[in-house]
Amino acid sequence: MSCGEPHEKDCSEVLDHLYEYLDREMPAGECAEFQVHLDECSPCLEKYGLEQAVKKLVKRCCGHDDVPTDLRSKVMGRIDLIRAGETVPEVSVLEQAKQEQAQREQSDAAAAGSQEATGPSEAAAGPSETTGSADARAKAARTE
Question: Exposed, middle or buried: residue 125 (CB in 10 Å: 0-12, 13-18, 19+)?
Answer without folding.
Answer: middle
